[in-house]
Amino acid sequence: MPNFQSFTIDFLTRYFQQITVYLIATVLVYSVFYIILKKKFLRRYIGRHFPDQNKIKFEIFHSLISRIIFSILIVIVAYSSSLGQTKIYTEINQYGLGWFFLSGIILILWHDTYFYWVHRLFHNIHFFKYIHHLHHRSSNPTPFASNSFDPIEAFLEALPIVIAIYVIPLHPAIILFWDVFQFGVNIYGHLGFEMLSSCFTKHWFWGWFNSSTHHNMHHTHFNTNFGLYFNFWDRVMGTNHPDYHNTFESIHERALDYQI
To answer: Has residue 148 got a pLDDT over 70?
Structure first.
């Protein structure tokens, strides 16, 4: 491992990057939907009331704590990679363009599968109180809740990419793409507004993707809607909330007569 001084400098650099990205993204999205265009999108709001400022501060504080865990793992993996211990590669030609794109698909599918099953485990009575309860303090989440985790959960949330880096060849561009993609999906899942069009959840293709409504309902109905990107595992395992489709459509119907 690097010495304490170099580790500290690297950690602080990574952490500054982490919180900068988190704050810019969440503040921007929150400002657009909850302040600037709040009236315009009001009828697409999923909840019945807006969270108070104390809850938002709670989400931000614990998200910044989670980013400490993420930063430590990034430093460890980066150092390990410098020693040639990971599968990270820098020349696309080393594995070809086909693998470059295929590895991104594999990474997303792996993360989605990991998330569903670990997330269900979090809701086990023996683990919920110690690992996942903090995240569900946001029963009516905002974008700031996207990283609001207990430290143990933060570690487990970051684990799938760490495992992947040591198991399959990944180009830094694919890792970056995955990071932006998963963070964007996470923010949308906690947005509090449903922006997808009517019939999305029952569409033959798009219905296999999750919506903001899907995860928002998970925060109010704890033992349903466990999926992240796709609706595959929830469908196969019968864990979609029975009123998911109706709730999604009811939100859209509220928006039909709203003049933008």
So the answer is: yes
DSSP string, 31-46: IIIIIITHHHHGGGB-
CA distance 22 to 256: 33
Give CA–CA dist 52/34, Å, rounded. 12
Of 203, 213, 227, 221, the C-alpha closest to 255 is 213
Residues 6+ apart with CB under 8 A from 137: 55, 58, 148
Residue 221 and residue 140 in contact, taking contact as beta carbons nearer than 8 Å: no
Instruction: Using DSSP, state whether 192 is helix, strand or coil.
Output: coil
Q: Where are the domains of the chain?
A: 4-256
Helix, strand and coil content of the chain, in percent to the nearest 5, comes to: 70, 0, 30
In contact, 225 and 218? CB cutoff 8 Å: yes
DSSP 8-state assignment for residue 170: B
Residue 20 to residue 17: CA distance in whole angstroms? 5
Task: Look at the pTM and tell me if it is higher than 0.90.
Answer: yes
Q: How many CA atoms lie within 13 A of 207 on its CB side?
A: 12
pLDDT digits (tens, 9 = 90+) for 16-42: 999 999 999 999 999 999 999 999 999
Cα–Cα distance, 109 to 132 (Å, whole number): 23
Token duo for residue 223: 């033992």
Q: Which residue has the tokens 């019968």?
A: 238
Exposed/middle/buried for 80, CB within 10 Å: 0-12, 13-18, 19+? middle
Helix (H, G, I), strand (E, B), or coil: what is residue 193? strand
